[in-house]
Amino acid sequence: MAPNDSVETDGGTRGTAVGRRKAARYIVPVAVVGVAAATIGLAPALASTGDPDLPEITAQQLIEKIAASDTQQLSGTVKISTDFGIPSLGGLDGSFAPGGSDSGKGDSTADPQTKMTELASGTHTLRVAADGPDKQRVSILENAAEYSLIRNGGQVWAYDSKTNQAYHAAEDRSGKKPGHPAPEGVPSTPKALAEQVLKAAGPTTSVTVDGTAQVAGRDAYKLLIKPRQSGSTIGSVTVAVDAKNGVPLKFTLLPSSGGKAVVDAGFTKVDFAKPPASSFTFTPPKGAEVTEADDAKTEQKADGAGGLGMFPGGEGLSAGGQGAGDMKVIGEGWNAIAEISTPGGTGLPTKKSGDVPAEAQQFLDTLGDKVSGKFGSGTVFKTRLVNALMTDDGKVYIGAVTPNALVKAADNAA
C-alpha cells in the first residue's frame, strides 16, 4: 500500500509546480466526445479486484510520473457515467442543444456538438484509440448502432450509423486545423480529465497519494486532489495512475454534498500497443448524407465547448461567444465565480414579457429558484456541480460553488 504522502500546493516545492506544468504539456490528449465540462457515477465505472502492493511513492513523484509518461499509443474500452442531477439529454431532439434543430439549419445527427449533450447524463460505453497527437478515434456504442468520431491529421470525420449521416471538417489551405472541436478538445477520458485538474492545481489545492488500486487489470496508484477551501461543490477528485507508465486510467469526481460520483470515467480494457492504421481511416458508406463543417458556425460552437470550467483556473468559466470585456472572475481557486454580462443587459425572458412560450417558462421554473438580495432579484439554476445565478438586470454568476456563494458574490458586486 502506498503511503498517504502529500503535497500541499500552497506555494509547494518548485519541483511540484514544474511537474504540473510538464503534466499539462505531455499528457497525450486522447479524448472522447463529452460535455463542456464533462461526465458519471450511477455505479462505479470499474470494480477494484484488490489493492496491489506497490513501492512507496509521494504525491510529487506521482505527478512527475504522469508528466514523464510518453505513452502516445493505446486502444481500449472506457465506461463513463454522469450524474449532474439534471434531466437526461439523450432523448431530446436537439432543439435545445447548442446548434440543435432550433438553429433552423437541420443539423446533422453526426455533428459532434449535438452528440456531446448525450454524455451529460447516464452511463455510456466507448471504444477509444490513439496513435500520437494527430490520430484519435472514439466510438460511442449504442443499442444496435454506433457513433464514431475520427481525427487523422487535418481531417475530422464523425458518423452516426443510426441515421447514416456523416460530418466532415478539414484543415484549410493556410494550415489551420479543423475549426470544429476535434476529439482531443473534449476532456472526457481519464487522461484528459486529469490534465485539466493538474493544470488547475494551485495554492488552494491539496494533493495526496491515497493508496493503490487495480484498473482494467493494471496496477495503479490513486492520486487524491481536494479543495482546501470551503464553499465549493467539489468534494474530491481521484485519479488512478498506471504504476508502470504513468497514464491516468480512471477519474472520479465526488461532490462535497456526498452521494454518488458526479463524474466517473475509467478504462475497463486497455492496450498500449500501436493501434491498426485502419482505426483512423473513414469513408462515408454508400448513401450516407454528408455535412461539411461551416467555418463561421463551427468557430462559434467551439468557443462554447469550453472545458472543465468547474475547476479552478478553467477557461471554460468564460461563456461561449462572450468577449473578454463581458466577463470577470470573482475570487480564486475552487471558489472562483465568473461574472458575465449578458448581451443588452437583460435577464431571462419571461412569460410575462411574451418572450417565451408558457411551456418553456414552466420548464425554466422547475429548474430555478427565485432569490433576492442587495443586487435585486434573480434565479438560481442548480446542478450537483455547477450552479448559476442569473439576475433580472442581466448579470450571470456561475461557478462550482454553493448558491449562497453566488448570492454573496452578486451582493458584493452590487
Whole-Å distance between the termini?
52 Å
Percent range for β-strand residues: 25-35%
Task: Tell me the number of helical segments per DSSP (H or I, 4 or more residues long).
Answer: 7
- Taken together, the total number of domains comes to 2
The low-confidence runs, each spanning 5 or more residues with pLDDT under 50, are 8-48, 89-105, 179-187, 295-311, 313-325
The main pleated sheet reads as:
13 strands, mixed
In percent, how helical is the residue content?
Answer: 10-25%
CATH superfamily of the largest domain: Lipoprotein localisation LolA/LolB/LppX
> Can you write the helix and strand succession as a string?
EHHEHEEEEEHEEEEEEHEEHEEEEH
Beta strand count: 19
Protein structure class: alpha+beta
Secondary-structure arrangement, i.e. CATH architecture of the largest domain? Clam
Q: Output the CATH topology of the largest domain.
A: outer membrane lipoprotein receptor (LolB), chain A
Spatial strand order of the main sheet: 1-8-9-10-11-12-2-3-4-5-6-7-13
- Provide mean pLDDT, rounded: 74
What is Rg? Answer: 21 Å
What is the CATH domain class of the largest domain? Mainly Beta
Identify the overall geometry. globular
